Amino acid sequence: MPMVDKAARWRVLWRGIRVVSVMSLLIAGLVACDDRPWNDPYPRDTATSNTLYSSFGERPKHLDPARSYTVNENTFIAQIYEPPLQYHFLHRPYQLIPLALAEMPRVRFYDAAGEPLPDDAPAAAIARSEYELHVRPGTRYQPHPALARDAEGAPRYLDLEPGALAGIDTLGDFAEHGTRELVAADFAYQIKRLAAPWLHSPINGVMGEHILGFAALGERLEAADPEQARARVALLRDTEFEGVEVLDRYRLRITLEGKYPQFSYWLAMPFFAPMPWEAEAFYAQPGMRERNLMLDWYPVGTGPYMLTENNPNLRMVLERNPNFHGERYPDSGMPGDRAAGILDDAGAPLPFIDRVVYSLEKESIPRWNKFLQGYYDFSGISSDAFDQAVRVDASGRPMLTETLEARGVELMTAVEPTIFFMGFNMLDPVIGGEGQRARLLRRAISIAVDMEEFISIFLNGRGVVAQSPLPPGIFGHRTGEAGINPFVYRWEAGRAVRRSLDEARTLMVQAGYPGGRDRDTGRALTLNYEAVATGPDDRARLNWLRKQFAKLGIELVIRSTDYNRFQDKIRNGTGQIFFWGWNADYPDPENFLFLLYGPNGRVEHQGENSVNYTNPEFDRLFERMRNLEDGPERQALIDRMVEIARTDAPWIWGFHPRAFSLYHRWYHNAYPNQMANNTLKYRRIDPALRAELRRAWNQPVLWPLGAAAAVLLALLLPAWWLVRRRERSRAL
Amino acid sequence: MSAYILRRLLYAIPILIGVNLLTFVLFFVVNSPDDMARMHLGEKRVTAEAVAAWKADHGYDRPMLYNAEAEGLGRLTETIFFDKSVRLFVFDFGSSDDGRDIGRDIAQRMWPSLAIALPVLLVGLAFNISYALFIVFFRATYVDLASVVLLVTMMSISGLFYIIGGQFLLGKLFQLVPISGYDSGLAGLKFLVLPVIVGVIGGIGAGTRWYRTLFLEEIGRDYVRTARAKGLGERLVLFRHVLRNALIPILTGVVVVLPLLFMGSLITESFFAIPGLGSYTIDAISNQDFAIVRSMVFLGAVLYILGLILTDISYTLADPRVRLQ
Amino acid sequence: MPLMPVVLWTDALLYLLLALLGGFAWHAARHEHLRAPWRRVARSRIGVVTLVVLGCYLLVAVLDSVHLRLRLADQSGATSAETRYSPEVLSLLDLALAGLRSQSEKTYSAPFATHLYVKEAIELPDGRVLRDYPRLVHGGAHLDDPAARGLDILWRGLLGALLGLALWGAILFALSAALARRRGITPALMRARIKAGRTEVPWRAALLTLASILALGGAVALLAGHYHVLGTDKVGEDVLYQALKSVRTGLLIGTLTTLVMLPAALLLGIMAGYFRGWVDDLIQYLYTTLNAIPGVLLIAAAVLMLQVYMSNHAEDFASLVERADLRLLFLCLILGVTSWTGLCRLLRGETLKLRESDYVQAASALGVGHFTIIGRHILPNVMHIVLITLVLDFSGLVLAEAVLSYVNIGVDPTMNSWGNMINGARLELAREPVVWWSLSAAFVFMFTLVLAANLFADVVRDAFDPRLRGAA
């Protein structure tokens, strides 16, 4: 081959190397023009600001307080909207305190003739109860264009010309933002919104049973023309109804039918947060909806934060509400709280944090790794990251692993007010019903399904075996020997021990299924399990379940289907055995025991009693229990109800999950509160420390770049050599 | 040529109607309007009245395909199908079942998908073709066999593990790039590095194998033998003849996927939290948001047909012997 | 009867496929022009090696496709005299692997481990509670001292390998005797030829492959009785058992899909190419429309539809195996629907070409009927395309199963499949210490099959494609 050719080739190669190195230098310069870590996912200027970083996995569907009912929506709106009441941050048992109100509501009872009754009157005598709410004067809404006014004091943006929205994409594009004072009529307006049929509020049905004239209001509003959004707002504003009366600028009266002590808990949910009518009138204008400008996406509240950036495709940003009325950090807590340092900020003005950035993060593995790198300030623990984060010491106490401890991460655990259980459909001829045979079968299965093993395999021990429907922390829950379910457990040496499989097999014999075969027909017993297979863990879970039933000789057929069909089966009562859960709306035993109340049956009454359990005595006791104040009388009733339920065993009681959360050392005032969602305002961070640690933890490791280049070269050179050799050999 | 294109565009209409009809039937057999209503109303405390009201509100209370109660043409037009699909043809996607404007979301989420897919395609193309040429150069030797084993190994690894491995190595261990996330503009560049690398590596197995087959087919042709008989060097044969002639199938293979790049990739976008159209579709399916699913399938079909037309055009450009009729 | 045979849908189809293959082989053996390409396959070293590997997979799959229900022991005091069968449907493979199937632990254990992979609270005899790794119930339970397991494994492994090789020796002798008789030489001479690699069919390569498979199989078989050779999964089931059971799933998806789509693709493809005009337009419209819908969506919708059907007819699917089987069949069907378009287009193109060929023109000038022409002249001449597509698609389909499981539209979650194993393993990867064996087992088993199939496909294509014949 001529030498010229060779030289030319080297020139080309050299030019290529030069281009590549210049480009990589450029890129490196682009990335490293400041001293931030290379893998920092946030824009430059936010490193040291008083900003909290968190994530969201699924975009919230509704940020309208009349509609939102899920945890991931509440994460946002509980910081923005302020309902009349809230749960005390530190006090246990959970205590309601005023939030948007100046004081706790005054409750009065009246009989059918309208005569006032004393507070301790029997529930049967009470025909009406009145709640009088005093709104805190001087509270103002967050800045919002709907509340902006022009020089004459007329609303600035409520009557927009067609075309005035050109160039407007978000609320921030409006030039002027205004505010106004919170008044009692705003609460009334929101309660009427709950009744409005076009808003599909999830608590429409429940409130219809309790608030006077609420259901009738819904029917009256039915007539509104769906095409005339603005007319609907006006109609809602003008309509009066007997359940809610605005007494003056700051006073409001809500009237309930009969007695409903749980109503106070509802007043602590965003459903009852005030809503300025101007906001709805603003969003009802033509052209707003097409720009995604609506109450579902741009909330208007009085709370400590407001939503300033709403891009569910990328990130959501909460910022401090400049008009916030001010609140102070609680100055009393439970014993030990002061020593733990949780009261260090007592009396300090809330909120502490200026800005909260929620980034879209769909998968758990990247989320977890970013937490470890310090880019999220707190995190839960997924089942499979558990071993990286937590080890359990000899006494069963969870402790952080050394890696996490070295980073100063802290762990917080709390049993959730939630129960997961396995339900037996009581309408099923084999497994359900009141017959002794089915009851014994259910109890045998309850022993055989080893929930301790389930918790240890699938939840890494993050759960407590349930002995009754009531989770710990809810009135009526009993601990120790008095709290165990005697049909499944024995009390031995100070702890509950699951009864042996032999006992379960004996029960099977008594039920007429010796060895899992029907004594009458000789046929092997086959039961169906209704499953919704959604994740990679399900396969293992289903196999585990089959193993549990196989212990008794029962063949468990997994009927796996999609979520809709599963729901259908439960609704129609055609399922046999299924897994189900319930998360408390409010910390009251009524909210759990009603899951077994006969008139709440799923098939007949579309209620939440998904197993369709009915027991007349249980129902009678429930009706008495729900109107009682907490006390010995209520405890006695609950004890008896739990005993009945355990005897009938309509559920395998399952477990109460224990929430583990981790937070970095610059994150302060973390305290488990399972009922309150508006706890963001109590949190405090130390941004300087965070910036420093992030830098220290995320120094880029550069040798792999060199190594990769070397490997590439090591692969290319022999290849080149091979090509040359082959060519030469061919040429010969 | 323009007459041909026009005819192909007209031909697209019945296909789009067919696609729409099929999507409709499939989706509704699986998710009845009742199911959709329940999904959107949440799990707790849902009543039959609420379900009925939701359906009426979102226009799902009509018959699906044929309205027996209406008069004349209304029998076909006063149905869910007509209602929901006619507007698609003017690219008016309406609003999703949870009330956001779909057109806006698509316009916004298209670019992130493209920002990942385009570099992956180009870099992958360059790498795969070079590697395939290298293998073909050594065909029927141990280099060939070893490469095929390597390629099949790479094909057998699920794409997921490239992602998890890439995040673990580059993001967690070496801390060179952010593990996941996205930003627009230049600031977004560092987020793209990892998904693009992972995408290219994940595509090597199947891609290179495909080009290898293509080149091998080309090498078996008579003109190559003639060229070799003339005494041309092996490398010249490969570059001057094989590669040039294989360019037509390569080109058409690329052109047909070009429009579909907009649709994004499903798993990559989820894992890297990239707000593209792939994750948009998957979210819509899991949330049973029929309005979005329908729009995305429609868009996908339009882009697919566009790809077919572009392929035909590129054929004529690449090979003057082909005439469009 | 001690057992009742059960024939599942996919079993029946697999038998049909085997029968078709047998029939085709018989037919091909009697026609020289059909035999020639196969002879080329048999003379390729890669061809026979991959054939041996594929044969082993096929053997496992066939064993796993003979299903039966065992009779239950008579119950004392049973009122009915009727014989009762267990509701559990088992296959011959299940019976052969009964030990593996029943020896489950509580949760994860590593390959050859004697202790569980996670710590547990162990109650000591004196009442104290200690957190440690407990001994396994089955894995290494015969050892008094777990520390001595290295030697035990080595000894058992060697013994097993020797047994395997002994079996191989028997096969070698039988084979060489048979071959020698056909050629009329002594077996010893035949063996010498094989050893020297001087046979037309590369028997040496085939036998060496078989030797390594048998030695490995023997070692594993002997070890599996006392250890979990590939560890156990999250709920303590043996991973080796799962991986073996997955062979059938993978193989069925790879073959049945093509089998079920074949009639439609053949008929429509040839019709479109042969008749042209409106028939062609219609068929093209059909496959363009189907292609325009993203495949994942189509599959998802179809699988969900099946679930709707099954929950509406729950009583027809009494046992778990039947439910899983129907879902597998349905998956094959729907994968066939999404993939027939490619073959259909190829066939259409080829038919268009053939139609213009002299002999077809001549036949049609002589007034031979359309369907006779198609059957006589066109169908036999496109069969090589069908065959090539079949082997080429095979590995792609096996891999597709794994991807579909990720989106939860793959086979039934209770069914053993590599896709399900890999899908489950994606969370295990994030564990610390990492659980690698489930994934590795699925990967190795799947990879071996896919690699063998791919290499085999290349050989078949080279042998059948006339254009490639004689190329370098």
From TrEMBL, chain A:
Spans traversing the lipid bilayer: 701-723
Domain Solute-binding protein family: 181-601
Domain of life of the organism encoding this protein: Bacteria
One of the record's GO molecular function terms: peptide transmembrane transporter activity
Pfam families: SBP_bac_5
Alphabetized UniProt keyword annotations: Membrane, Transmembrane, Transmembrane helix
Keyword presence, Membrane: yes
Biological processes annotated in GO: peptide transport
Name of this protein: ABC-type transport system substrate-binding protein
Organism (species): Marichromatium gracile (Chromatium gracile)
UniProtKB/TrEMBL annotation, chain B:
Sequence ranges assigned to domain ABC transmembrane type-1 in this UniProt record: 110-314
Gene Ontology cellular component list: plasma membrane
Gene3D superfamilies: MetI-like (1.10.3720.10)
Compartments it resides in: Cell membrane
Keyword flag Transmembrane helix: yes
Primary residence: membrane
CDD domains, alphabetized: TM_PBP2
Membrane topology (UniProt): Multi-pass membrane protein
BP terms from Gene Ontology: transmembrane transport
UniProt-listed InterPro entries: BPD_transp_1_N (IPR045621), MetI-like (IPR000515), MetI-like_sf (IPR035906)
Short name of one Pfam family: BPD_transp_1_N
Membrane-spanning ranges: 9-30, 114-138, 145-165, 185-206, 246-267, 296-318
Keyword terms of this UniProt record: Cell membrane, Membrane, Transmembrane, Transmembrane helix, Transport
Alphabetical list of PANTHER family matching this protein: INNER MEMBRANE ABC TRANSPORTER, OLIGOPEPTIDE TRANSPORT SYSTEM PERMEASE PROTEIN APPB
Record family assignment: Belongs to the binding-protein-dependent transport system permease family.
Protein name: Peptide/nickel transport system permease protein
Organism, scientific name: Marichromatium gracile (Chromatium gracile)
From TrEMBL, chain C:
Any Pfam family the entry gives: BPD_transp_1
Chain segments annotated as transmembrane: 6-26, 46-63, 153-180, 201-229, 249-273, 285-308, 328-347, 385-407, 434-457
Subcellular location as annotated: Cell membrane
Membrane topology field: Multi-pass membrane protein
ABC transmembrane type-1 domain mapped to chain residues: 247-457
SUPFAM superfamilies assigned to the protein according to its UniProt record, in alphabetical order: MetI-like
Gene Ontology cellular-component annotations: plasma membrane
Predominant location category: membrane
Similarity comment: family membership: Belongs to the binding-protein-dependent transport system permease family.
Protein name: Peptide/nickel transport system permease protein
Organism for this UniProt entry: Marichromatium gracile (Chromatium gracile)
